[in-house]
Amino acid sequence: MSLRICDWKYGKRWVYSITYDEALIDLHRFAVPFHEEFGIPGHLEVVVGQIGEVRQIDGSSFNGYRHMNGDELKDLMARGWGVGNHSWTHVFIKPEMVDQELRVAREVLEQAIDAPVPLYCAPGSNRNMAPHILEACRQLGYLGAMSIREGINRPADECYWLDRSPLIHEYPPPFFSKHDPFRNILPARQSHGWVIDYCHCPIEEPIHINKDCSATQLRKRLETVLAEGGDEVWCAVPEEVVFYHLSRRHATIDVVGDSVNDRRYQISFTDLPAGVTCKELTFEAEVPAAWCNFPRIWVDGVAQTAELVRPQVLRATVDVGDGVEVGFRAG
Q1: Contacts of 187 (CB under 8 A, 6+ apart)
Q2: Parallel, antiparallel, or unpaired: how do β-strands 2-5 and 194-199 relate?
Q3: What average pLDDT does range 218-241 have in this prediction?
């Protein structure tokens, strides 16, 4: 008999998240209704120095569009969305600017939404994933940092360089790659990976073809994720995925009881970051066939329903505290 922690929550094979840089109010025109229709949560990357203001940033394609205010952000959070810090000014963060862009910006954003902000999202380009910025993220207690780099995040990866794949109408030269609603889905399924899409504010036509997609393209992407993912995909906000990822990586399993009638394990955490506020983990246990009748998992002696996923394998998602005991029994 053995117990293992699944790569992803609920035993899903791969993960999908979608982020919207700038947190513009015009997302309500198209993006938010699509998310309501499909039940997929979104994630807003907030330029904190312009919360509630009309965007005015040198050279921005989105100048003239209004950023959401605190109440509007909280409205989407109540619908299951998440929020990240996209810096204070959306410029290159020099070493002397780190305090304002990462610490002060996060504090102001947390006050605006009455909730913690565990993730940083690089503004502008991957220059804002420079070593001095990522080191500041670690020191300030951020749990992860999201880049603007095409790629799949895998269960063994760390969280201080999360790849985000552009969901845009067309890549800039010299490639000119067109929008592909299937992009990265097959690699994610094959490698048990995590896809994080990145766009801005899809409307009838892309505001900038190299920075955004259209509303039609967004809808097709969400439809494709669900159609191709089926029961194998976990659609979640990045915070929940990072909480799971870190809890899994910092957990240890020790056998504390082993008999013909039961087997018990203690789950402990080593150096788990304090900002991980949700420690739900999904376990799979190999047990004798007779233990699969009326499947249960016992958590600190209290029975919870488990799922029979295949012969002699039970699965359950458990809210795990440090030192909690989980077990399985005959009958």
Answers
A1: 152, 193
A2: unpaired
A3: 98
Average pLDDT over residues 203-224: 96
Residues in the chain: 331
pLDDT at 175: 80
Average pLDDT over residues 99-121: 98
Query: Which class is 12-236 in CATH?
Result: alpha beta
- The residue whose two tokens read 């190999």 is 286
Overall pTM > 0.90: yes
**Does residue 298 register a pLDDT over 70?**
yes
CA pair distance 128, 256, nearest whole angstrom: 47
266: left (phi over 0), alpha (psi -120 to 50) or beta: beta
Confidence of residue 1 (pLDDT cuts 50, 70, 90): low
Mark 297-312 as b/e (b = at least 16 C-beta within 10 Å): bbbeeeeeebeeeeee
**Residue spans of alpha helices (H) in the chain:** 31-38, 70-78, 98, 105-113, 131-139, 185-191, 215-229, 238-250
Angle, helices 31-38 vs 215-229, to 10°: value is 20
Q: For residue 98, is it left (φ>0), alpha (ψ between -120 and 50) or beta?
A: alpha
> Domain map of the chain by residue range?
12-236, 244-329
The structure tokens listed for 51 are 């919360």
